[in-house]
Amino acid sequence: MTPLDFDCAGQRLQALPAGALLWPARRVLAVADLHLEKGSSYAIAARKLLPRHDTLQTLTLLAALIEAFAPKTVVCLGDSFHDRQAIERLPPDASRQIEKLTRRTQFVWVAGNHDPAPPRQDWGDVAEELREGPLMFRHEARFGPADGEISGHFHPVAALTVHGRGMRRRCFLTDGRRAILPAFGAYAGGLNALDPAIAQLFPDDYDALIVGRESVRRLSWRRLRPDLVLA
């Protein structure tokens, strides 16, 4: 898999095809919106018949990134758990996986709007936001100037037309000053990158770093489309 290098607030960052952000200089790996146990939440509350394997799928992908890049710190940018009871619903295999990962490297769990209850103390640190050098990691971007802000929350996706067919792909968004990460969770869903809730955060210009299976492609927002009916 080939990452895409980009600059944010003077720092060289890498957008990974898996939907995670790597900051090589500080050995920081950031992921947003894991929404662990969303499948079980829907099965219980919404009575939707979703396969309840999303948590293990998400954790397996995260484990592979930790194995590949050996980060010093993993920053989870909020909404790591889908609701307040998600930790209680974790399958034993998932709990053991989290324990294994958090013993291997330092985890920082940034609070999100879905997971106000902190994870277990032995799973790492909990923070409202995290300042690391020139970068600020938080769950939701703040309106106005925010040099070095790294956030999640919006689950951005890019809508494209390729060979006459509509498609949607997860994407990072950046204007060189801030970056918004795609959702990392298997069942997280997405919001169009042109939605006003997102576009207002980038008053001048911004690019979508579009996640593919093996690489990441950079496109101006001008080349994106509103949500499409998929062929």
What can you tell me about this protein's structure?
The protein is α/β, with parallel strands linked by helices and 231 residues long. It has one domain: Purple Acid Phosphatase, chain A, domain 2 (4-Layer Sandwich), CATH 3.60.21. The chain is built from five helices and 16 strands. Strands 8, 9, 10, 11, 12, 13, 14, 15 and 16 form a nine-stranded mixed beta sheet that branches. A hairpin with a 5-residue loop joins strand 2 and strand 3. Helix 2 packs parallel to helix 4. The longest helix is centred in the N-terminal third of the chain and has 16 residues. The radius of gyration is 17 Å and the shape is globular. The chain starts with a strand and ends in an 11-residue tail after the last strand.
